Amino acid sequence: MSDEALTSSDLILERLTKLHPKLIDLSLDRTWRLLNSLGNPERALPPVFHIAGTNGKGSVSAYLRAALEAGGYLTHSYTSPHLVRFHERIRLAGRPRSSAISEQDLSRLLDECERANNGAPITFFEITTAAALLAFSRASADALILEVGMGGRLDTTNVVAKPAVSIITPVDLDHQAFLGNTIGSIASEKAGILRPGVAAVIGPQVDEAFAAIEAAADRVGARLFIHGQDFTAHEEGGALTYQDEAGLLDLPLPRLPGRHQIDNAGVAICALRQAGMLPLEREAIARGMREVEWPARLQRLTTGPIFSHLPPEAEVWLDGGHNPAAGRAVAEAMADLAEREPEGEGRPLILICGMLDTKDAAGFFAPFRGLVSHVETIAIPGADAGLPADRLAAAAQEAGLDATPAAHLDQALERVAVAAGRAMPRLLICGSLYLAGHILKENA
């Protein structure tokens, strides 16, 4: 892209990537230095919902924001990575809903942070998170939903002295090069966000992760509210039934598809109740379940240029999950769709997949064994760390799937009809949020 086509924020963001030789270098020292230079905006934030975990952080964030806004509360949110534009990461409170930060405001904040940093080494995520905290400190709101970037203990967001509530969604293997090679070690890093006396809502965990989180909570004196013990959420009679010590709520099923979204919704509801200072009526939570939006999480696509490559009546889904746990959740959701189809009208499930070379591709594919008729693999356009299509196809074959590498997305789309034969295909484009962002951008 030429400099002429770049916006002011694009130019600044490009410069910020060059301030540190590493993309990821977990530490809080550089963040504290910059925040001090900016006047410590982290001390002037509205009540914070701080969210760590491997899977489900974004969905829990979306439920929280939808319910709070339905209840009339002004809500900021910070998530990463973005799908199409960086601005998506920073959502500022406004009526009727929060919206992505404007180009003018983002450019001004980034410029201020760049000047305050004065050329010192700092990672891209550190300096852009500081800009987000600065934005949140200057705009009035009732709540801030703050999503951890990676880990927790040394994550740049872990500068809030006392959040309203801490949340840890399911922990699984991911980012092992930075967080450790076991689920226990990763969970210990995630549990670094826990604070003395602060309620901590813990989503479904395997035993190893829960033991690490419980040990961390004991050390710091956090108050745990545990899925399956202190609160439950399940589907019953086509509705979401939530229960904790405060009582039972009958709610509509979440708008986001997949059984795992029942758990994510339950975690968000528990966090809303434990935060305390922002009371919500049942109807606000119900509206949040009905109106929640979270792109690229089992998102159904119905229009756009990609359909010009597909057979008529093809069904297309998009998901950015990229680790084995996400693969299990998405495969389960696809299996549920297949089970609901009338006998004899089943659609063959075909994947178009692109992944980063840091991910466990074979582990992601394994849950789809016996469910998928064919996989087309592609290199993610524009992703320097993307797996080549042939290596990704080999990983799918290792997991027991029929897979073929494609030269590019258009070729993969055109081969879907061949793979489906005479049946109407169900296409799942998956494996990476970077691929999902590319699809959303190109299919707009």
Automatic annotation (TrEMBL):
UniProt keyword annotation of Metal-binding present: yes
Signal peptide span: none
Protein name: tetrahydrofolate synthase
One GO CC term, this protein: cytoplasm
GO biological process: tetrahydrofolate biosynthetic process
Catalyzed chemical reaction(s): (6S)-5,6,7,8-tetrahydrofolyl-(gamma-L-Glu)(n) + L-glutamate + ATP = (6S)-5,6,7,8-tetrahydrofolyl-(gamma-L-Glu)(n+1) + ADP + phosphate + H(+)
InterPro entries hit by this protein: Folylpolyglutamate_synth, Folylpolyglutamate_synth_CS, Mur-like_cat_sf, Mur_ligase_C_dom_sf, Mur_ligase_cen
EC number: 6.3.2.17
Needed cofactors: Mg(2+)
Organism: Parvibaculum lavamentivorans (strain DS-1 / DSM 13023 / NCIMB 13966)
